[in-house]
Write a structure and sequence with these properties.
By secondary structure, this protein is α+β, with helices and mostly antiparallel strands. It has 11 helices and 16 strands. A hairpin with a 5-residue loop joins strand 10 and strand 11.
């Protein structure tokens, strides 16, 4: 099967159409590496095409071998896909394929190309699911959603997805470096994720695999934390009128640490499934850890289903989070989806309201004058004890002399520490406190020498 789709899932026909058939997309040996089985001569080690039966050098029977994943990935560098995309370098790899940086020759721009695992091409249901979901994702045009430029399947079965290339780092990398984020920054990032979800949910698209690895934080001149959400192309299309349910109940998709209870149970997902995942990410950003962790994926899923998340605390002792923000996080992580926020817009509004209280809170009133005010204090406003600081210094002692100073050489220590408490002002400025400390230090020194 050969399919070719462009932006918005359109081919050469009417808008929205998917054209099957037509001229092949592969352009011969230079268009794509040979990912399929190769044949090897067991005698001389010479490689041969899969169609050959015997070695051309020694006529030995050839054996079939498959290149390793690393060999296939390395062979992709420098290749041209579909006569349009020159593969430049490997960008990353995940459970649903390998991502490369490529150069789109016709328009002179760099793009990201995700190549799905070859095994998917052998599964007709998986190919149909990819075509359906990629077509839906290519209709998204929200600023916080990765743009899908192109997608399709080459004649050798390779499925590909062409996306805009965004500079930045994943939210997972941000959290690995910082562990926790300030409440304002966490809400700013989550607000953009929810904005992207709001647009997708309005089109009937549920992501189902939201996690920090699928969120790119890209610095912009007007926004240091501009967010792009990835992998909507692998999401489920929530179409109740579909004649063929390509995401049947009982199948479990997603990443265990961020999966909702209904996902863990294999139940049908909806937009509130995505909001639960956002709640997990928000909890992680604020608290420095995920709400549920375990030794195995199954143990984590069981906790999502049965256990309440531990109380959310600030990153350090005494760094309390706004109660409204803690409550919003708790609600997003409710076990029953009916108890969660019912839309991305509702959750975003709650987070923004919670953080607005923190930002607009008045500063704590000062009870002490600033350090610079110490010089302007009236002399009679200081306690009499401060006069001791300006008293003549005690006579110097010979080197090594201790314990033989006459009692009259220093002021009586008892008189220094027995000053009436009323002499101390109610508001203790740093200058006044320093004076008191100096006085008590002199008193202590006198007592030591006179002993």
């Amino acid at each position: 099967m050969n399919a070719r789709m462009g932006r918005n899932g359109t081919g050469a026909g009417a808008p929205g159409a998917i054209r099957f058939g037509g001229p092949p997309l592969a352009a011969g040996p230079e268009s794509c590496d040979k990912r399929g089985p190769m044949k090897l001569c067991p005698t001389c080690g010479e490689q041969a095409d899969d169609a050959a039966e015997r070695c051309a050098h020694d006529d030995a029977a050839l054996i079939r071998v498959k290149p390793s994943a690393a060999e296939r990935e390395q062979a992709m560098i420098g290749r041209t896909l579909d006569r349009r995309y020159v593969i430049e370098a490997k960008l990353g790899q995940g459970g649903m394929g390998t991502v490369y940086v490529a150069h789109q020759v016709a328009v002179g721009r760099r793009v990201a190309i995700k190549l799905l695992p070859p095994a998917i091409a052998d599964d007709m249901a998986a190919v149909k699911r990819f075509m359906q979901e990629a077509k839906a994702a290519s209709t998204l045009s929200h600023p916080n959603t990765i743009t899908i430029h192109d997608f399709g399947q080459l004649e050798d079965g390779l499925l590909f997805l062409v996306m805009e290339l965004v500079e930045g780092q994943t939210l997972a990398a941000v959290l690995k470096a910082a562990r926790t984020l300030p409440a304002e920054r966490a809400v700013r990032i989550c607000g953009q994720i929810l904005s992207a979800l709001e647009d997708a949910h309005a089109r009937g698209i549920v992501h189902r695999d939201l996690k920090p690895d699928n969120v790119i934080v890209s610095p912009r001149p007007d926004s240091p934390d501009f967010v792009k959400v990835l992998d909507f192309g692998l999401a489920k299309v929530a179409d109740a009128d579909s004649h063929e349910n390509l995401t049947q109940t009982g199948q479990v998709f997603g990443t265990p640490a961020y999966m909702s209870p209904e996902q863990a149970l294999g139940e049908r997902c909806d937009l509130r499934t995505d909001l639960y995942a956002v709640g997990v990410m928000l909890y992680e950003m604020l608290g420095g850890r995920r709400p549920f962790e375990g030794d195995s994926p199954v143990s984590i899923l069981v906790k999502h289903i049965n256990e309440a998340p531990p109380p959310l605390a600030g990153p350090t002792p005494g760094a309390a989070l706004p109660p409204a923000l803690v409550e919003a996080t708790r609600r997003a992580l409710a076990k029953r989806r009916e108890d969660r926020f019912q839309s991305a817009a509702e959750m975003r509004a709650a987070l923004e309201a919670a953080i607005a209280v923190l930002v607009s809170a008045p500063p704590m009133p000062r009870t002490d004058p600033p350090l610079g005010d110490a010089e302007t204090l009236a002399p009679d406003s200081l306690p009499p004890l401060v006069a001791v600081v300006s008293a003549p210094p005690a006579p110097s002692l010979p080197s090594g002399f201790q314990g033989q100073v006459s009692a009259g050489a220093l002021p009586p220590p008892a008189a220094l520490v027995s000053a009436p408490p009323a002499a101390l002002p109610a508001a203790r400025s740093p200058a006044r406190m320093a004076a008191v400390v100096a006085v008590l230090g002199l008193a202590g020194a006198g007592a030591w020498f006179a002993s």
